[in-house]
Design goal:
161 residues, 6 helices
């Protein structure tokens, strides 16, 4: 392993430990850092559950999450439980930790939602909902000055790819 490291610009072995020589593999120009800071300062902070709710109101992706046959709600708001369960899994927070972050939702309720609503079939159906990056950005609630941005759009409003 050490044979190729003397000429490596990114890594070296010092005192028997791997040390990275550069923080980022790609050079980030000062102008880009300034642009990121400017854009970041102009956007307000958004809670992830509010963002997910806004996206669902825009494109209705949660309609794809239909429960298995025989599902009997245990009470409470199944939509709220579904959003919390999606956040728990999507952020790798986990259901138990999420239950401590949300009033009136227990780990059991989130586990129940996960079992009944989240499976390969519903996850696949939820992906291609009409949140298309090819839709005109001016028709999107996710545009400059809004609560969020879409990763499929560059800062200049042009499409990526």
């Amino acid at each position: 392993m050490q044979r190729g490291l003397p000429g490596n610009r990114f890594a070296a072995v010092r005192n028997g430990r791997l040390k990275l020589k550069q923080r980022d593999a790609l050079l980030i120009l000062p102008a880009l850092r300034e642009l990121r800071a400017t854009v970041g300062a102009s956007l307000s902070r958004v809670r992830i559950e509010d963002l997910l709710q806004d996206v669902d109101e825009w494109c209705g992706f949660t309609c794809a999450f239909q429960p298995l046959g025989g599902y009997q709600p245990r009470g409470g708001d199944p939509h709220r439980s579904l959003l919390a369960t999606l956040i728990a899994h999507g952020t790798n927070l986990g259901l138990a930790a999420m239950s401590h972050s949300v009033d009136s939702l227990t780990a059991d309720a989130l586990q129940d939602t996960s079992r009944w609503f989240l499976r390969d079939a519903t996850l696949k159906v939820s992906m291609p909902v009409e949140c298309s990056p090819n839709a005109p950005i001016e028709n999107s609630p996710l545009r400059y000055g809004s609560v969020a941005s879409v990763s499929a759009w560059r800062l200049d409003g042009g499409k990526v790819g």
